[in-house]
Write a structure and sequence with these properties.
The chain has helices at 16-27, 62-67, 84-91, 108-117, 206-217, 283-290, 306-315, 333-340, 344-350, 360-363, 403-420, and strands spanning 6-12, 30-36, 40-47, 50-57, 97-104, 122-131, 134-142, 149-154, 167-168, 193-200, 220-222, 234-238, 241-249, 269-275, 295-302, 353-356, 373-378, 389-396. By secondary structure, it is an alpha+beta fold. The protein folds into two domains: 6-180, 2,3-Dihydroxybiphenyl 1,2-Dioxygenase, domain 1, CATH 3.10.180.10; 193-424, 2,3-Dihydroxybiphenyl 1,2-Dioxygenase, domain 1. A hairpin with a 2-residue loop joins strand 6 (122-131) and strand 7.
């Protein structure tokens, strides 16, 4: 199995089977392995190189849960009760969330020691999982962002599908058959890898989070695009938008012991977002309220053909947050689309956002590099709360995030939340 910086993303869910079926039937994921223990049920799903681990806890006893080597809680211990009445109350607090961004490492002992020595809290020490297909070592540390954790995974030479203890499933498994034998390209849907993940922070804490990852992980800040200020990040104000964003990467962090990717799709980017004061109800604050604090707001999945992928996802029943009606009539937008060589009517019919990099024309007027651009679209929330979204993104030479798209994405999500009533909570 090829190694990459991002090993998997873990979700804590109330109904794992239901959520797995949603990913398979609507997003064309494939179920590859499952695990059942005395305290939890788990599912491993893939699309391209992206791997999602779903965990449903079935026990109410903290000591039993924490004893399971593969299970981590994503909510406060105080929320786990023992009596029937407590369980009933706590079930309302046990929310669905994406909470663990697991990272591949080359030397877990060295990596974990450096993290602990620098002051990082260790949630679970190194454990070795063994099978006839090889060994996998894991350890979990606590991020400074809400309920986010990072599991370190050393799987050098492991030949299995995921990790020891997970049982492979067959293509004709009951869940996989909901997606035509688990095909990952049904209706031309192609989702190849995780492009980036975005964490929502509490207002005023974004710089502290950046500093934490730089100090403990040696991560490298990179500019979202040319409009970004090096100190303040990308700040978007006006028209009911108040957002600050910054981004940083794992791929330059070999000194901490993380696996350096050999291909661009192996690199993983973290994006941070916080709301600005005096903006009124907004999607960042809605997330903080409904998620019970900071956390992972959306996962971006890359596609080599966003038009066919969005069309296919719609056919499978996926609901999207649509861009504002005037997006395609903004000054210069139609010219930009035509310059790239795309059909405005097709992009508009699917509600796909597009941005050419601001400096693309400066370097090579007639070359391929002069048409560096990206296209994006957000889904509606995946859970019963307005928290986690997926983003579908296609990069055509562009490495950052378009300024105009960020505003349009913000407005599309705002429109959905207003319609759903979440902004009135």
């Amino acid at each position: 199995m090829d190694q990459c910086c991002l090993h998997h993303v873990e979700f804590g869910v109330k109904d794992g089977s239901k959520f797995a079926q949603k990913l398979i039937s609507q997003y064309c994921f494939k179920l590859i392995a499952t695990r059942t223990s005395a305290v939890a049920k788990q599912w491993v799903l893939t699309t391209g190189r992206a791997r999602f681990l779903l965990t449903e806890i079935t026990s109410d006893i903290y000591e039993e849960i924490i004893a399971d080597p593969y299970v981590k809680i994503w909510f406060d211990r105080s929320r786990i009760g023992t009596s029937g009445s407590e369980r009933e109350r706590n079930s309302k607090l046990n929310y669905d969330t994406a909470f663990d961004v697991a990272i591949q490492v080359e030397d877990i002992e060295k990596c974990l020691k450096k993290l602990i020595d620098s002051g990082v809290e260790c949630f679970r020490p190194i454990q070795c999982h063994t099978s006839d297909q090889g060994d996998v070592k894991t350890a979990t540390i606590v991020s400074c962002v809400g309920n986010v954790k990072h599991t370190l995974v050393q799987s050098n030479g492991y030949r299995g599908l995921f990790m020891p203890g997970f049982v492979p499933v067959t293509p004709d498994d009951t869940l996989n058959t909901t997606s035509v034998n688990g095909s990952q390209s049904v209706n031309n849907v192609q989702l190849t890898h995780v492009d980036h993940v975005t964490f929502v922070c509490e207002m005023g804490t974004l710089h502290d989070v950046i500093s934490w990852y730089q100090k403990h992980f040696g991560m490298v800040r990179f500019m979202v695009n040319r409009e970004e200020d090096e100190e303040d990040g990308m700040v978007i104000k006006g028209d009911n938008i108040g957002l600050r964003m910054m981004a940083f990467e794992y791929w330059k962090c070999a000194e901490v012991g993380l696996v350096a990717p050999s291909q661009n799709q192996d690199r993983i980017t973290f994006v941070l977002a916080e709301s600005l004061p005096f903006q009124g109800p907004n999607q960042v604050d809605t997330f903080l309220q409904q998620h019970n604090g900071p956390g992972l707001q959306h996962i971006a999945l890359h596609t080599p053909n966003i038009i066919s992928t969005i069309t296919g996802l719609r056919q499978k029943g996926v609901k999207f947050a649509e861009p504002p009606p005037n997006y395609y009539y903004e000054e210069g937008k139609l010219d930009e689309i035509q310059k790239i060589g795309l059909k405005p009517e097709l992009l508009k019919s699917e509600g796909i956002l597009i941005d050419m990099e601001a400096d693309a024309d400066a370097d090579a007027k007639d070359s391929e590099d002069s048409h560096r651009y990206l296209m994006q679209k957000f889904t509606q929330p995946l859970f019963d709360r307005d928290t986690l979204f997926l983003e579908i993104i296609q990069r055509c030479g562009a490495s950052g995030f378009g300024f105009g798209n960020i505003k349009a994405l913000w407005k599309s999500v705002q429109a959905y939340l207003s319609k759903s009533g979440s902004q009135n909570l």
